[in-house]
Amino acid sequence: MARDPYDVIGVARTANAEDIKKAFRKKAKALHPDANPKDAKAQDRFAELNNAYELLSDEAKRKSFDRGEIDAEGKQRFTGFEGFGGRPGGTRGGAPGGDTIFETFSFGQEGFRRSGNRKAGGAPSSDDFFDILSGMTGRAGGSFRGGDPFGAGGEPQSGGEDVTLTVRVPFLDAARGATQRVVLPSGEAVDIKIPSGTRDGHRMRLRGKGKPGSLGRPTGDAYVVIAVEPHPAFRAEGKDVRLELPIALDEAILGGKVRAPTLDGEVELTLPAMTASGKSFRLRGKGLASADGPGDLYVTMRIVLPEPSADLEGFARVLKERRKTDPRQGL
């Protein structure tokens, strides 16, 4: 069950729209997945915060929630029965308002409750009461003219169910942004927009695309969870991206210009002479898109040895004879 949106954002029910916006922005900055890259539940908490703000920032929805007409997910609440005869405040047997036994009926935690006026002359008899109950539940040959709100198990019918779909998205599509077609359980195909910078585990809500409710109750929602497929070269760390770039031995020793791929095309890097394997270069703004600015791309060098040869072996022997330091010293 979704938490109270006021509690999620951290404001009182009397807070005005500006207070809610300020509290939301402050919390969004603290809960953003980019600020919590090692927290597996950061995406869920951020999604919960967004859903809460979506409800409270809509004046009509907020008023409906405050009146108890919708729940924290924006779904219609079951509020009981308005009356008999197919209209609110209906009367029993078509009698005028003065002959109403009960104007409205509802079921709550206290069980059967009534409100409205009684017949002139006092409380209804036990026969009247059981006649009402039999008419509501369809027992003793009775029927509920407004439609039976109970299923075969005797429980109130609820709104439609939410469904969750996992969609696999290629790394570069998630990084650059793309459109992907999703087939819902109903068989309907919809195109969803994958925003640039989408992270693994990102949740998207499709309103009214879940399973339909019974007796006209609201349809549930569909939640699409993005599973970003791994890339052979790029690896995301929050909003930053890492790339391991192979370089030749001569490039590492002599230095020079090498081409390196990025998320949006190739760039040219200048390697200094004697670049060691494991040396990283930072390309600012070449990472994933983010609400607080793009991340960076870290390119790490990996020296690839050439094919074995007599010349290479001779070169290595000369290096060994002239080496004056131990590369493992201090370990």
Q: Keywords, please?
A:
331 residues; alpha+beta; HSP40/DNAj peptide-binding domain; four-stranded mixed beta sheet; three-stranded mixed beta sheet; elongated; chaperone
**What is the approximate shape?**
elongated
User: CATH class of the domain at 234-322, anyone?
Assistant: Mainly Beta
Mean pLDDT: 79
The CATH topology of the domain at 234-322 is given as HSP40/DNAj peptide-binding domain
Largest sheet descriptor: 4 strands, mixed
Determine the structural class based on helices, strands and strand pairing: alpha+beta
Order of helices and strands: HHHHEEHEHEEEEEEHEEEEH
Straight-line N-to-C gap: 53 Å
Strand order of the largest sheet: 8-9-13-12
User: Measured on Cα atoms, how large is the radius of gyration?
Assistant: 33 Å
How many beta-strand elements?
13
The helix tally amounts to 8
- The low-confidence runs, each spanning 5 or more residues with pLDDT under 50, are 81-157
- Percentage beta strand: 15-25%
The helix content, as a percent range, equals 10-25%
CATH superfamily of the domain at 234-322: Urease metallochaperone UreE, N-terminal domain
Name the CATH architecture of the domain at 234-322: Sandwich
